[in-house]
Amino acid sequence: MSFATAARFARRELRGGVHGFRIFIACLALGVAAIAGVGSVRTAIEAGLTDQGAVLLGGDAQAEFTYRFATEEELAWLEGISTEVSAVTDFRSMATVSRDGETERGLTQVKSVDDAYPLLGEMVLDPPMPLSQALDGGELPGAVMAPVLADRLGLAPGDKFRLGTQEFTLSAVILREPDDAGDGFGLGPRTLVRTADLEGSGLLAPGSLYESEYRLLLPPGSDLDALKTEAAERYREGGIRWRDSRNGAPGIARFVERLGRFLVLVGLSGLAVGGIGVSAAVRAYLARKTSVIATLRTLGASRNTIFLTYFLQIGALSLVGIALGLVLGAGIPLLFGPLIASALPVPINITLYPAPLAEAALYGVLTALLFTLWPLARTEEVRAATLFRDALDSARGLPAKRYVFATLALLLMLVGAATLFSGDRKITLWTAAGLIGALIILTFAATGIRWLAQRAAPLSRGRPALRWALSAIGGPRETAASVVLSLGLGLTVLAAIGQIDGNLRASISRDLPEVAPSYFFVDIQPDQIDGFRARLAGDPAVSRVDTAPMLRGVLTLINGRDAREVAGGHWVVRGDRGITYAAQPDERTKVTAGEWWPEDYSGPPQVSFAAEEAEEIGLKLGDEITLNILGRDIAATITSFREVDFSTAGIGFVMSLNPTALAGAPHTWISTVYAEPQAEAAILRDLANAYPNITAIRVRDAIDRVSELLEGVAGAIRWGAAATLLTGFLVLIGAASAGEAARSYEAAVLKTLGASRARILQSFALRSALLGAAAGVVALVAGILAGWAVSHFLMETEFDVMWGSALGIIFGGALATLLAGLGFAWRPLSARPARVLRARE
Description:
Helix content: 40-55%
Pfam families: FtsX, MacB_PCD
Number of strands: 21
Subcellular location: Cell membrane
Shape: elongated
Keywords: Cell membrane, Membrane, Transmembrane, Transmembrane helix
Radius of gyration: 34 Å
Structural class: alpha+beta
Number of helices: 27
Oligomer: single chain
Main location: membrane
Protein name: Putative ABC transport system permease protein
Largest sheet: 6 strands, mixed, barrel
Strand order of the largest sheet: 2-3-8-5-7-6
Distance between the termini: 34 Å
């Protein structure tokens, strides 16, 4: 028989409709829709960032300097290549309000601008007015600020506040800032003033922590790559950092890309759950087609023809499910486009994007092939005579070797595609390993549950409902495997996320009071450090004060080679880093290799490097690194490695140099203060009054800000896990539906023997609840293992089992299975025994 014959048989079978395949189609559609939807939204955001890159950046290109403004030569070059230049300065400070003898302070991210700002976009203020008018003010310079900061300080337009030693009048609050997304993460709300009005405020003194940014409008047709290369070659020694409109908001772009990758991986776990439902649906369908297959074999149909018949039929239904998923994945973002756009702080271009849809379709095809090939292949191992009795249950455990190899090849292709499209090989491979490991654990668990049920059934004499339930779970036809695998995998993903999220929150709340300082002070001038220390030295509420000089510099070369080439994308070589100096290490510094320089050392520059970061980059003792600090290149030899723990929120520098290496370089000091909570307000008040230029960052507030971001990420991931769980519930419904005929026969036999409907229903309910609880327990074990691995290896935090989340998983598993089981129990209970038993004959 030919392929055409198999296709004709498949077409005739499909005329009977999709009964029995609704869950099959729904599982595929939901998994594909989740991946397509996430990919479409991610692509829409990336397209919006690209299209609006110049507005987000504030110009066609930007040159950025740390700790300094551009020199006359650098400014002349920037003006020569552009049609217009706007200079912007960005730094942190304290906004101070005095009223009725009391002073309130709030951390703010200050942006000081010139008259040309903004080059692109529009600043929207309340009350409405041009930005130039708002910054003119009246008797005092004007300022605008974010509404949240104005509310916190109790300010209204016309009120006065202070930055450093300079007073300002609040003219308006900011409703929309055109380039806020391109400015990156800030610990405080925005305040915007003119740079010229900060003269004499003490905030932009030599060594203070600020960044100067020069936004450029370029002539049409400018070669951005050529300008970037020229800037690097011409002013590499000056520490220039160049960015153009193709990457207007790099922080947001990286965040969206990484979150999108992770959500796609969560979506793949949903497809894996759906795949179990697909496999179960195919198996149940082929079991119902025993007589048809037997008839075909009797009439001379070959194994290949039978396989092709049902392969084509199920393939066509798979394409329907995938197509439906693509329609949903593309249509939902289009339908809710305005709502999505209003909820995001970045521009988004929502339309149809072929790439994410093609990616989702590929995942759907590979998943359908992977989970249908095995049950389809097993039909070849069944003889025609046994097909009339028990088609698939009489087949041997493994199909022919070629199908085993094909299954492994499909699995490798699916993992390879996920690795290729995610862009993060390590996370993808670990996720794939985790899913496969969870499936193996759940498979063995399903076998173990059936074995335990068989052993426990004889022990439950006197409790007929429990005994019937245990016998059914341990029986050969029970759906224990489908329930444990489908619901268990969905609950495993949810349990792992719950454990990770709970431990992250617990780590923050547990560790903060013990190790974190109360305040982090920056921009302390050298002539202020002695008075700063004196105020804290006699305070009994202060347990510890750490101070250190600080500069910022860029690691440009490693052994004469470009640092980015040597270190790849390591965070130490991305942008500028804090650098300090010390004649001798303090008592808490632990040198792990090499030796510290002598206290009176005055030779060539030497540097002590953080041991962990050095190992990650591949540095060794004797290597030479070149740092660009305030436009000056300093080549230093690595003479020691030391332990640096950044998790304490205290002072930590990757690089510490000998003092003479930085002699004469303008710098400021930083300090961490550990104090009793009740003394924090007085400490801030005294130090801010004495030194208005310093900036105090309350560490608890900073961690709360980070926690808010983490909550947003966790929320998105929980929604992805919920979709996985929904797929698992659909598989449960499919398993319950497939077992309806068996339960009808069982109920008929029990009724004939005198069992009441209530007791039969109780048996069905116990069966479902026990299976769900068992799936929840197994999923909890797998989820705890996954949560421990992520907490221990990735986050490097302590791990404790979150029992509230754990018990919720078990209860949820039992409830979900109970609802699915009871939903398909009423019809078997209402069926007349005589009709069911007569039909069985």
